[in-house]
Structure formats: structure tokens, C-alpha cells
């Protein structure tokens, strides 16, 4: 019996290029906080829809869908939703702190 290294089944990611800062007007439109939040909400919604689809497929005994894959999809959606809920709470706390700031 042999034990393989952990990295033996992982794909090679190669080198990671450093992030280049962008300046407004360089041909890329700067995405703001609102756009980032909107994209994150869409991603969480997609995860929840995928989990629902997996559970439905498992109940209907569709081929290729196992209880294991359905549970993984459900847990991913749950963790993403919890994270989004915490982010929402932090945004509200920050907004309330700004409101309490005296000028």
C-alpha cells in the first residue's frame, strides 16, 4: 500500500501573474461596490437554484445525481447564504455608524 502526495491529483496552476492596477479611463469601466454586491447576490441565487435542482433530481431519481452531490450543492448554497447574511449585517452596522457620526 502506498500513500500518494496530496498534490498528485491537483491540476498545475502554474505561476500567478501579479494584479495590475487600473486607472479610470484605461478602457475598463470601474465596477463599484454596488456592482460587486449585485454580482455576489446573483452568484448566491445561482447556488441556491443549483441546490434545488440537485435535490429535485435526487428525489426524482434522475441519472447522475447522487445524495452526495445534492448534499454538497446544498451546503455550498447554505454557506454562501450565511456569508451574504453576515455581509448584509456588516453593511447595516457601517451605515448606522456613519449616521451616528457627528459633523
Describe this structure in words.
The protein is mainly alpha-helical and 103 residues long. It has a domain at 31-100. 59% of the residues lie in helices and 0% in strands. The chain is built from two helices and no strands. It has helices at 33-59, 67-100. The termini are far apart. The model has no long low-confidence stretch (mean pLDDT 83).
Residue runs with pLDDT of under 50 for 5 or more positions? none
Number of helices: 2
Order of helices and strands: HH
Estimate the mean pLDDT confidence.
83
Give the termini distance in whole angstroms.
71 Å
- The helix-and-strand class reads mainly alpha
The shape is: extended
Estimate percent helicity. 55-70%
Strands, total number: 0
SSE diagram, text form:
Blueprint: H1 33-59, H2 67-100
Write a concise synopsis of the structure shown:
The protein is mainly alpha-helical and 103 residues long.
Offer a few descriptive terms.
2 helices; 103 residues; mainly alpha; extended
Amino acid at each position: 500500500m502506498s500513500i500518494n502526495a496530496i498534490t498528485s491529483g491537483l491540476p498545475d496552476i502554474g505561476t500567478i501573474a501579479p494584479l495590475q492596477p487600473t486607472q479610470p479611463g484605461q478602457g475598463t469601466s470601474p465596477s463599484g461596490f454596488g456592482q460587486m454586491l449585485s454580482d455576489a447576490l446573483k452568484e448566491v441565487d445561482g447556488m441556491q437554484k443549483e441546490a434545488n435542482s440537485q435535490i429535485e433530481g435526487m428525489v426524482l431519481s434522475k441519472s447522475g445525481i447522487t445524495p452526495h452531490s445534492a448534499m454538497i450543492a446544498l451546503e455550498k448554497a447554505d454557506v454562501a447564504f450565511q456569508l451574504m447574511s453576515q455581509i448584509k449585517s456588516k453593511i447595516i452596522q457601517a451605515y448606522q455608524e456613519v449616521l451616528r457620526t457627528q459633523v
